[in-house]
Design a protein that fits this description.
Low-confidence stretches: 1-77
Strand order of the largest sheet: 1-4-3
Structural class: mainly alpha
Length: 322
Amino acid sequence: SAARHGRVMRVSLVSVARPGADSQCVFAPSTSKRCQVQASRARGATGRRVGRVCASSAEPSPVKLDVGGRKSLDGSSLAKADRERYDSLFYKYSSANESGEFLTVDKFRQLMSDVDRESSRDWDEVFFDCCRSRSPLGLFRDLSSVLRDRLIAGKARRGSSKFIFLSALGIFSGFLVLCLVCDFMVQHSFFSKFHTLGAPFILGSFGTLSILVFGQANSTNIRVWNVVLGHMIGAACGLLSVKLLGYTALAKAVAMSSTLVAMLWSGAVHPPGGALALLMVQDPKLQVLGQWYVLYPALFGGLVLYFMGFLTNRLKKHFGAN
């Protein structure tokens, strides 16, 4: 957190165990700089530990913090899922403590509780609470501050400059490849007869998918299961709705509701799949594809972008873009 914010933070860790007990914790932040922990043990019956986090320019490295005193845990001994969880918690909770004040364990626990409670609330509940607790003038000032911080200062950016650049490069390359594949499929493939009748290859859902694949690769909505089954569910529900109800308002409502139910039931929530369902009941040109729509171009085009996203992720890991 110190490396990310460009400042030094002091952290107070109070051992809840008896003095001399083996109490340890490990933080592994994915920062672009190394965070080193220099801990000094304070003598006394409370077993108080005071650490100072310093930032220096070096390669990313896990932060090892020895609270109890015998030995530090090595990051390699932790399961991969645990390391990712510690990484996420460190980033999440240290980001919420912007004041840089002296932080005790009790305050840290309260901070974790507050952030968890806030993240579990629905968007409408948060919005109305915000409106009720502020005057119109206060809302205007808050909105001005948010716009300035997010649009000008970039305080809400999702990743380092290197990460943003490689994400943009990946989505640029992905759509170049997708357009090349489109030209070939339209002119020389088995499906060219459908395209001569007006069926498009590039669908609007590919835009939604590309933002997730290249910008939020850690999202659970773009796991392999979600992508493959989510595409097929959306396309199939849209196709069946058109077959049964035609291009009517009822068909659109049935297509979207059945898509949502199937995704929630199967655990394959995938937003681009909803776009595929709506496209089928909205665009008559897709009707010529018939049952092929489920696999082509819906799933096929999505897998092309998914493969390019895989290459982009390897490139980000190679250059250490966090």
